[in-house]
From TrEMBL:
This is Uncharacterized protein. It comes from the Bacteria.
């Protein structure tokens, strides 16, 4: 069973509650390290598999862990 995480926030300017769901799996497309999210506005899906980039700091830490330097 996949562990799915949810986040929720109010977007004042749009008057919607934005909810995101993710399995928190890091993916690499050869250029970008990212996590996929499904984005909902008031419960309606607006983006499927939206790619949220991992920050440079997180990528550096992951690289050091993989290289065995952590």
């Amino acid at each position: 069973m996949t562990d799915v995480r949810q986040e929720e926030r109010l977007i004042e300017g749009l008057k919607v509650i934005e909810t995101t769901e993710t399995d928190n799996v890091l993916r690499w497309d050869g250029t970008v390290l990212y996590v996929e999210h499904d984005v909902y506005h008031n419960g309606q899906l607006v983006h499927r598999k939206y790619r949220r980039k991992v920050t440079a700091d997180v990528a550096r830490v992951l690289l050091s862990v993989i290289a065995g330097k952590a």
